[in-house]
Amino acid sequence: MSGEPLGRRQRQDALSRTALGVFRLNGQFLAVSEKLAEPAGLTAAWWQVLGAVLPQPLPVSGIARAMGITRQSVQRIADLLVREGLAAYEPNPAHRRAKLLAPTEAGRAAVRRIDPGHAELAALLLRELGGQEAFDETVRVLERLSEALETVSGEFRTPEA
To answer: Which Pfam families match (predicted)?
Structure first.
């Protein structure tokens, strides 16, 4: 047995299990999102970007920040959405060069076609999790984990080899 304190191994195991669980969840959400989006003529990624701009137009960098992915990935998807007529670039009064991405009526209609399947999946998850209170707690835990990781990622430094 190594000389490592048990607490250190427990923390590392908890981190590994958390990461693996989140990676698995990510894959599961992507798979179900593809199923939900396909009948609307969207991909999960297109739906994700359109969903980010439904409340209000945003610059590509703002979408990327909200989604936790690279600006380049969002830019590629945004350009495809514009080419397909599902979104449009609008002038940004706050920044001349960083245009805002906004959904078109066709983009809004495509997202609306996802709503029935989205509502059904939400109801199924609500039942499986044991009710609204448990579902809300699940959301709070995931949001807290994301906030915590964002906070500590600025403090974390890779040890020298």
So the answer is: MarR_2 (PF12802)
Domain boundary assignment for the chain: 6-152
Q: So what CATH class is 6-152?
A: mainly alpha
Q: Which of 74, 117, 121 is nearest to 99 (CA)?
A: 74
The rounded radius of gyration (Å) of the Cα atoms in the chain is 20
Q: CA 74, 150, 32 angle in degrees (round to 5)?
A: 50
Is there a contact between 42 and 113 (Cβ–Cβ < 8 Å)? no
Q: Which residues of the chain have pLDDT under 70?
A: 1-5, 161
pLDDT for 4: 64
Contacts of 40 (CB under 8 A, 6+ apart): 47, 110, 111, 113, 114
Q: What is the pLDDT of residue 2?
A: 57
